[in-house]
Design a protein that fits this description.
It comes from Caldimonas mangrovi. The protein is of the alpha/beta class and 423 residues long. It has 17 helices and 13 strands. It has three domains: 218 residues, HUPs (Rossmann fold); 76 residues, Orthogonal Bundle (Tyrosyl-Transfer RNA Synthetase), CATH 1.10.240; 69 residues, Structural Genomics Hypothetical 15.5 Kd Protein In mrcA-pckA Intergenic Region, Chain A (Roll).
Length: 423
């Protein structure tokens, strides 16, 4: 509900941090381990441990907030890193709040930007929000998820409330934000309304009385703003947990549709499975840490087995099946494995060269030549005619084939392979 308290002349009284007299049980320590799994930062850890202890002792669940601006309709598995953490905390019995930033989307998040981000129209926001939550529900348990829209309390603020909120923070502190600092030094315009974005995101935490807010590493400033404003309003300050940005299939750049190194959660099971099987053995463990729901000790044993001689492909299959089953079904995961084995004919080597190309859509002949898999375009055509070219395990028979942006495992003959990322 909207907060109507007026700013006082001085700082509002601050409720003490979570009481430390609650016992730190083994169950609390386990919850802390789950909280820390794969995270970049948890601040302050001592406060979060105390909050977990209080929740365990009092049986009162903590309020876990994730705010997302529906800037695009579709999400990929990189977006689900934070959602996975929400599900893990949800499984511990805490209340998960999926906050749709329908109000903040009209401002435009300046995080990581070197220019002003254009705001979305109400129609775009509504359409994107519906699709976004439907996809996010493939990770979160809808029955245990509280869905909120920040227009609930942001719209009623009005001009007076917005000015009063702005009085809670200084321009000097706002300019400590890295992207604002860089833009100011470079002489790049910063619109005044962009200062309102972190204030409004922080105010969301006040309205929701959040105990913990999650976000990507690029959201740290905004998350800390929530903690500051809660103190200003006399609330117990939230802890913040940031999750790293997931590397894409190439293992170098962060996962992004524009870079073509992504796995969309709405993709066909076979395509999703094949893409996950194309990642390197090293990257596989990163994906296990950030995407898998398997217990860490189980992942640790699996990693040790692979280091002792077990084929890493076995682990990769387990990962790919888990992800496909999550976004489709266990049956789809089994069918995707069967399809992959049928097409791969013996599988793909674990270590193959990575090649980055531009010019999508690119003809298959030019791709083979530029990737170093054929000495010339004419030789590439001959190889295709002979059935010696495969993409993600599937034989290529069309010499006029043009490939869109994406990452593919390309095979020529029995021994030539390349993981090609085309942009």
């Amino acid at each position: 509900m909207p907060l109507t308290s007026e700013p006082s002349s001085g700082a509002a009284p601050v409720r003490p941090s979570p009481a430390s007299e609650y016992p730190i049980t083994d169950k609390v320590r386990e919850a802390m381990t789950i909280s820390l799994r794969g995270c970049d930062e948890l601040l302050p850890e001592s406060d979060w441990l105390s909050k977990l202890a209080r929740a365990e002792a009092t049986r009162v669940p903590l309020r876990i907030k994730l705010g997302l601006d529906p800037t695009a309709p579709d999400i990929h598995i990189g977006h689900t890193v934070v959602l996975n953490k929400m599900r893990q905390l949800q499984n511990l019995g805490h209340t998960v709040i999926f906050l749709i930033g329908d109000f903040t989307s009209t401002i435009g998040d300046p995080s990581g930007r070197n220019n002003t981000r254009p705001p979305l129209t109400p129609e775009q926001i509504k359409a994107n929000a519906e699709t976004y939550y439907k996809q996010a529900s493939l990770v979160l348990d809808p029955e245990r998820t509280e869905i909120r829209y920040n227009s609930e309390w942001s719209d009623p603020l009005g001009a007076r409330g917005m000015i009063q909120l702005a009085a809670r923070y200084t321009v000097a502190r706002m300019m400590e934000r890295d992207d604002f600092t860089k833009r100011f030094k470079a002489g790049t315009p910063i619109s005044v309304h962009e200062f309102l974005y972190p204030l409004m995101q922080g105010y969301d935490s006040v309205a929701l009385k959040a105990d913990l807010e999650l976000g990507g590493t690029d959201q740290k400033f905004n998350l800390l703003m929530g903690r500051h404003l809660q103190q200003e309003y006399g609330q117990e300050p939230q802890c913040i947990l940031t999750m790293p940005l997931l590397e894409g299939l190439d293992g170098v750049e962060k996962m992004s549709k524009s870079k073509g190194n992504y796995v969309g959660i709405a993709e066909h099971p076979n395509q999703m499975f094949g893409k996950l099987m194309s990642i390197s053995d090293t990257l596989m463990w990163r994906y296990f840490e950030l995407l898998s729901f398997r217990p860490l000790d189980e992942v640790g044993r699996l990693k040790a087995e692979c280091a002792s001689g077990r084929n890493p492909r076995d682990a990769k299959v387990m990962l790919a099946q888990e992800i496909v089953a999550r976004f489709h079904s266990p049956r789809a995961a089994e069918e995707a494995l069967a399809d992959f084995n049928n097409r791969a004919r013996g599988g793909i080597p674990d270590e193959i060269p990575a090649v980055s190309l531009t010019g999508a859509p690119l003809g298959i002949g030019a791709l083979l030549k530029q990737a170093g898999l054929a000495p010339s375009t004419s030789e590439a055509m001959r190889l295709i005619e002979g059935g010696g070219v495969r993409i993600d395990g599937a034989a290529v028979g069309d010499k006029a084939l043009k490939l869109e942006a994406g990452t593919f495992v390309v095979q020529v003959g029995k021994r030539k392979f390349a993981r090609v990322t085309l942009a």
